[in-house]
User: Fold this.
Amino acid sequence: MRCTVPAVVLLACLPLTACAAKTASGAAPAVTVTRTVPASTSPNPTTTTVSPTPTSPAPATTAVVVRTVAPPPARPHLTNASAVVSQYYQDITDHDYAAAWALGGSNIAGATYDHWVAGFDTTQSITLGTVSEFGASRVSAVLYATQTDGTVKVYDGTYTVSGGVLIGASVRQVG
Assistant:
């Protein structure tokens, strides 16, 4: 009886049968696989080199997994003063305090990072009401800070923005 094997199966098995071949000395040739991955570039197809070493025994099968973790997407540089103030309060609402701190919270907090973050413990969200620009770098805004108990605190603030970050603020509670 004749056995027919599909070509796909044969092609998939070829690398395995090549490893099982005997050399003149009777030992199976070892195969060394070298994979070069440049550290400073994004993942691209890499070069794989296979070279038989007939004088050494075949190594055990080893699987190598290379994972590339992409950095988080870069935040666009905000040049509009109103956009900076809006993003600052959106970061606080999202509890992304590190991003808000980097956007100028460090310049206007008047406290350490931990103390500043603790000041938002009971803040559920912040909504900007009226936002007005006085010029390219000054913004006036009314804030509605919804607390975790459902109450709303109202603040009036004036902000100064330079280079895409908050560099000054005067904020007072009005309700």
Q: What stands out?
A: Confidence is low (pLDDT under 50) at residues 1-37, 40-48.
